[in-house]
Amino acid sequence: MYRSLGKSGVKVSNISLGTLTFGHHSRPGNCTEEQSHDILNRYVELGGNFIDTADNYSQGESEKILGSWLKSIGSQRDSLVIATKGRLGAGREGEVNGRCLSRKHLVQEVEESLSRLQTDYIDLYQWHCWDKTTPLEESLRTMDDLIRLGKIRYFGVSNFCGWQLQKLVNLSKVMGLSPCISLQQQYSLLNRELELELQDVCINEGVAVLPWSPLKGGWLTGKHMNRDTLPPPGSRIHYASVNNFKGWESHTPLSQYANMEQVWELLDKMKIIADSHSKTMSQVALRWLLQKDCVTSVIMGCKTIGQLEDNMAASDGWELSSAEMNELDEASSYPLPYPFKLQNIVSGHCSFNNSTAVHKSGISS
């Protein structure tokens, strides 16, 4: 249930609790502070120790809710691994230096996150996305300085391209700076682009993969199995469909997949596999990720204790067979673009290179 977080000595639970659902500034139906605290308490009771948030979740309210809970549990905080993200700057959209990876912005963001979280340090501080306007050397030295000061323990990144992550890893080595230990990236049976390049970078460089949106906004939960009916009210699919919402990749409207026969065939396949194990479709989707070599911990969000308990049941005690993993890989695959297809064909003809995996990029939005 616990795995090493990249090339570090810290151990994290293989299912992380994401807190995008904490606070009413994000989406209708999100959790109140009391409901969020109940979820956090139950998560820890079930053995979880890895909690992820961001400075811009619910305009900072998510960090504040997590902070009030951390204060309430006192010394137990040190047994947890708290992760947050910076770069987008909640409430600073119009500021000249409000959304970047400059030293000025990062130091300010870390200090404000520490204040909202009511803690002396952040275990894992992550860049929310790449910043082409700030020299990478400046951003990396800032992280190294913050680690030396004890403000943060480790740093990671999120929503990167393959070349960006490899450049960061190489430059950190050359400059002798603290390494990036994790990549938080969208990855699921409905979004497999990570397998094109990032997977290999992470495996080769010892960077932990932390998938977000593992259930693709509810599409992989089994809530919506009939293509002729609307998704249930209160679900992310329903919210995105009614509002024609396209702001977040994790909120996918009905129109995105409604006419894709492969999606419905994938859901049917998942249902058969879930029933054979007496598990839910959500658990199958999470288990598929947990059995991928590059994945360390899967970030799942929830709005109820029931959802939390269902998701946590995927963490250990059972496995998908190799045949079932292959079936799900095949059901969620689509033709590789050039040059990935050519490279895999060539690799397949090289008998001495058995270590080269044949990756299939999945159904994507």
Can you describe this structure?
Keywords: Oxidoreductase. The structure is a single chain. With 365 residues, the protein is of the alpha/beta class. The chain has one domain: TIM Barrel. Helices cover 39% and strands 13% of the residues. The chain is built from 13 helices and ten strands. The protein has an eight-stranded parallel beta sheet with strand order 9-8-7-6-5-4-3-10. Strand 3, helix 1 and strand 4 form a beta-alpha-beta unit. Helix 5 packs parallel to helix 6, helix 9 packs across helix 10 and helix 9 runs antiparallel to helix 12. The radius of gyration is 20 Å and the shape is globular.
Question: How is the topology of this model organized?
Answer:
Blueprint: E1 2-4, E2 11-13, E3 15-18, H1 33-45, E4 50-52, H2 61-73, E5 81-86, H3 103-117, E6 122-127, H4 136-149, E7 152-158, H5 162-175, E8 180-186, H6 198-205, E9 208-212, H7 236-242, H8 254-257, H9 261-277, H10 281-290, E10 298-300, H11 305-312, H12 322-331, H13 340-348
Parallel strand pairs: 3-4, 3-10, 4-5, 5-6, 6-7, 7-8, 8-9
Antiparallel strand pairs: 1-2
Helix pairs in contact: 1-11, 2-3, 5-6, 9-10, 9-12
